[in-house]
Amino acid sequence: MPEGLEEEFTSLAGRLLVAMPGMADANFSRTVVLMIEHTPEGAVGLVLNRPTEADLLDHLPGWWTAAVNPRVVFAGGPVGEGGGLGLARGAGSQPLEGWPEVVGVRVVDLEAEPGVDSGLEARVFSGYSGWGPGQLESELEARGWFVVDGEPEDVFTSQPEHLWQEVLKRAGGRYAFFATYPENPRLN
């Protein structure tokens, strides 16, 4: 591309990626991903609506009292499934160095357990969603994702199974139309 005509990069950190109906990748079917970091070198996000059966009390008991319902570990994505990341808001949360605050929440150090009366709201994730340079941009160009504004309540919803529909309804316009799209259109 001639000098000066490069496309200007726009970070999606703090925005939500909402999977288009019919996304072929089963890891992301009907997911809502909070973008934590997005640079020309790649992107990192956490799937907000994939609770697992793993009770947080069994895995990180020190975070159980700060966790919002459901108090389980969430599947943040298919990358690094053995590792954990936490998101929290409120005084006393120790931000994990190098990670920005997005939509009023921060990535927190899970080794720095909060006190019982910390006043924190937290969510714990196993794994994350990651994209290499240009990979996310290609998926966006292929219309694999809607991009909408995120809110802290998206992270801490007590009904993650409804988040995909709720975010699309809230976005309005053409997005709201897709909120009622059936999981399997052949059964419609």
What does this structure look like?
With 188 residues, this protein is α+β, with helices and mostly antiparallel strands. 16% of the residues lie in helices and 31% in strands. It is built from 5 helices and 9 strands. It has helices at 56-59, 135-141, 152-155, 163-171, 173-178, and strands at 15-19, 32-39, 42-47, 51-55, 72-75, 79-89, 106-108, 121-131, 145-149. A hairpin with a 2-residue loop joins β2 and β3. The chain starts with 14 loop residues before the first strand and ends in a 10-residue tail after the last helix. The model has no long low-confidence stretch (mean pLDDT 88).
State Rg. 17 Å
Give the ordered list of helices and strands: EEEEHEEEEHEHHH
Uncertain spans, ≥5 residues at pLDDT below 50? none
Biggest sheet details: 9 strands, mixed
Distance from first to last alpha carbon: 46 Å
Q: What is shown here, in short?
A:
This protein has 188 residues and is α+β, with helices and mostly antiparallel strands. 16% of the residues lie in helices and 31% in strands.
Q: Which helices and strands, and how do they pair?
A:
Elements (H helix, E strand, L loop, with lengths): L14 E5 L12 E8 L2 E6 L3 E5 H4 L12 E4 L3 E11 L16 E3 L12 E11 L3 H7 L3 E5 L2 H4 L7 H9 L1 H6 L10
Parallel strand pairs: 5-8
Antiparallel strand pairs: 1-2, 1-9, 2-3, 3-8, 4-5, 6-7, 6-8
What attributes does this structure have?
alpha+beta, 9-stranded mixed β-sheet, 5 helices, 31% strand, globular
